[in-house]
Design goal:
The protein has 133 residues and is an all-alpha fold. The protein is built from 7 helices and no strands.
Length: 133
């Protein structure tokens, strides 16, 4: 996964290099897609710094590392069920950051996921014998 993200940076660098070379030789509006031309007319920001990808990539590295450490401490089935909480976290973050409204069927799904994860976690804790054999 991390190599894939690094691979994307490689292609981004090549694209930036080619765009600079082409911009020196031609009119800039000819290089843009129709959406890019409209964005320029509306004065939208189109030159976003690609280093903004570093923050979520760092969080992804930390999260993946912690998940792999957790995988060494619990059964794979429990680990996989606990990963189901990503749906709950995504629903909450979409409310907070995107201002999206969650409807009754969304909340029903979130409650069912929380209930299922709780049951699996509870059974895992109660059913563990306490030794590592």
């Amino acid at each position: 996964m991390f190599l894939g993200e690094l691979f994307v940076f490689t292609f981004l660098g090549i694209k930036i290099l080619l765009d600079r070379r082409a911009a020196a030789n031609a009119d800039y509006n000819q290089l843009l897609s129709p959406g890019g031309v409209v964005a320029g007319q509306l004065k939208m920001k189109t030159n976003i710094n690609p280093m903004w990808l570093a923050l979520p990539a760092t969080c992804d590295v930390c999260g993946s590392t912690l998940m792999f450490v957790a995988l060494t401490m619990v059964a794979p089935s429990v680990y996989q069920m606990m990963r189901g909480l990503i749906v709950v976290i995504t629903a909450l973050l979409s409310i907070i950051f995107l201002g999206r409204k969650q409807y009754r069927h969304h909340w029903t799904g979130v409650v069912l996921i929380i209930t299922g994860v709780f049951i699996v976690g509870y059974v895992s804790v109660v059913g563990s014998s306490g030794d590592d054999s």
